[in-house]
Amino acid sequence: MELVVLQKLGLAALLGIIVGWERHLKKNPAGMRTHALVTLGTCAFTVIGVHVLAAPSSAIIPIIQATIIGLGFLGAGLIFEGQEQTRGLTTAAEVWTLASVGILVGLGNYFLAVAMTLLVLIILLPLRWIEEKISP
Fold it and tell me: What is the pTM of this model?
């Protein structure tokens, strides 16, 4: 069991690092460490329910709900409102979305976790380029 849990935690952290690397390159305040900690933490809370407590599926739902609510507070701290613009909305949304990646890994849904990570990267990379091209 310990090896499976360690593999889940490692994969969750790796997927967070991959997305965080893109954010690091764009000089965003939430980079590789932040993203890895979000996916690792959400995976860990899920793993606690699945493996450590061996809870039934219905008992894991409150753990996931509490984790998502807690991440809402973290995301709120990433949003800055200035005189001319609001910054950090994408990063906050991304951190919140990456929580689902950690949860999916913790539940053993590796395919969906990797697919979610790829979708996040597609949203961040090509869509940024498109936004820059169509912005006035």
Answer: 0.87
By the 8 A CB rule, do 68 and 34 touch?
A: no
Chain segment 36-54, per-residue pLDDT in tens: 999 999 999 999 988 888 8
In terms of residue numbers, what domain contains 126? 2-134
Counting the structural domains of the chain, the total is 1
Q: CA–CA separation, 105 vs 129, rounded Å?
A: 30
User: Where residue 102 falls among pLDDT bands split at 50, 70, 90?
Assistant: very high
Nearest to 21, CA basis, from 117, 128, 126, 127:
117
Separation between Cα atoms, residue 113 and residue 96, nearest integer Å:
14
Cα separation, 7 vs 17, in Å, equals: 15
Residues whose CB falls within 8 Å of the CB of residue 58, separated by 6 or more in sequence, listed in order: none
Tokens of 33: 């460490």
